[in-house]
From TrEMBL:
The gene is pth. GO terms for molecular function: peptidyl-tRNA hydrolase activity; tRNA binding. Keywords: Cytoplasm, Hydrolase, RNA-binding, tRNA-binding. Belongs to the PTH family. The keyword Hydrolase applies. NCBIfam families: pth. It is an enzyme of class 3 (hydrolase). This is Peptidyl-tRNA hydrolase. Hydrolyzes ribosome-free peptidyl-tRNAs (with 1 or more amino acids incorporated), which drop off the ribosome during protein synthesis, or as a result of ribosome stalling.
Amino acid sequence: MKLIVGLGNPGRKYQGTRHNVGFDVLSKLAGLLAAPGAKTKFEGEMTEGHSGGQKLVLLWPHTYMNASGRSVRKAKDFFKLDDADLLVVCDDLNLPTGRLRIRPRGSAGGQKGLADIIRMLGGEEFARLRVGIDRPPPGWQTPDYVLGRFDSQEQSLIDPAIDRAARAVMDWAVDDMTAVMSRYNAKAD
């Protein structure tokens, strides 16, 4: 069993924003897995599906980005999972829009949702899949940028990245991390 967590903020106000890319990847993944409708659990929404013989639990924390660790901790403890069975999907300001980077562990890199999960789990030994949203343009404040929506040019990059990210999650669940990193960390065609 693997726990896949998509980071974002709950509510209509945040749908389609840069900060909610993790939610978008999980929604795409749920569709690919033909997962049933999500139910409220672990201070979030949760559903389950199967890929390559592996059970995947998908979790959208509704604790807001900066408190995501509470929801993740509850789910991880409930299912009695090791950190190695957890993958967190989130946005990343330090990657160009649409670029993916999957890693088996690491720091928060300035991502506050990841930072809270690291704090709540007491370590960095879980996988993360970062989806690039690029740096704010000059004159933009970071909170305004991450809570803003993609323009049409950015959307043309992020839509295929969300598709690739959902497939990367399915591969991560059943494949060797080195192979998955090689496949998805390269620049998209």
